[in-house]
Design goal:
Elements: H1 2-36, E1 44-50, E2 52-56, E3 59-75, E4 80-85, E5 92-93, E6 98-102, H2 105-141, H3 146-178, E7 181-183, E8 188-193, E9 200-201, E10 206-223, E11 235-239, E12 244-252, E13 262-270, E14 280-286, E15 291-297, E16 302-304, E17 307-314, E18 317-322, E19 324-329, E20 332-336, E21 345-349, E22 360-362
Amino acid sequence: MKKKTKLFLCLVFTILLLAKAGVAAEEKKSNTDAAAKPQGPPPALVEVAQVNQGEAEPMVEFVGTVYYARKSDVAAEVDGIVEQVFFEEGYRVKNGDTLAILGSDILDTVISATRADYELVLVELEQAKKELQRREPLYREGSVSESAYDEYFFKSKMLENRSLSLKASLDRLLLEKKKKKILSPFNGIVVQKNAEKGEWVDDGGTVAVVADDNIVDIVVNVPAGMLKFLEPGKKLTVKSDREKLTGEFLSFVPKGDVATRTFDVKIRMQNSAGLIEGMEARALVPSAEKTASLKVDRDALIDRFGQNVIWLVKDSTAKMIPVQVTGYDGMLVGVAGAGLEAGDVVVVKGNERLREGQPVMIGNK
């Protein structure tokens, strides 16, 4: 009987061990399946803006060229041989900086001679005036003849005029020497060097070309039919390889290209992007009147796979919508896309890293 009881207990213990091992294996399998199951992307922190109904101008993109708005051929006002040069192409200069100095050896001798003549005449003039003062009371008393008095009177006048003439000549020579130092007319950058030490420079000869690179003009060729949509001061978008910028329509050159029937349009802007003359820039120019359109912040529009898209937020989830650009209005862009309506919420920051269906957290509620 005891033997049967022991056998029964061993059998029950074995069954319990097998059951426990089965449960453990099932739990391990469940954990493995859970780990193998792909996880969704984590929520992305974004900023959003609302889609509004409004008007936008259709735009056409033109390729243009960057030019410095202000450029000066710095010329010598007097002639002379170049003694010193203080710049090279690419150097930055400030208003009043010395660019070059012309030789003044011969001029210095002329200045010395003229100054000596001037000082001599001043001495003679002083003597003549004193002599005149002594003779004046004698002339009134009748002790000196009128001719003797007139001699010193007119001599004083002659010496006075002579001193004025020499003073003017001396001032002119000193000014000429001052002009031997050629100065930069404004803050800018040297784009061309036209003088070297030892060269002769004629009066009016160009020593350097200095450009103010703080302000640039973007020049694009535009068809005549689009000029009517431009007015001075109108804000236009300019794109460079570095960033997107905003400029103002300045003017157009009233002389067109006969072959293409296009006109040069100038768009002026601050050179915050460090553009250099000759670089390429693309400008968006209005091509028609404003039309009704849905408008979003320009930051909402991104390029994905060569197509313009925006990210719509629905139920805290990102949804990508391909759109067509219908026009522009300042920092807003007109768009049209399937399923897009006024009042929708679109992502304006953080949209570059989003994936379809990814949860989002709005950071600018």
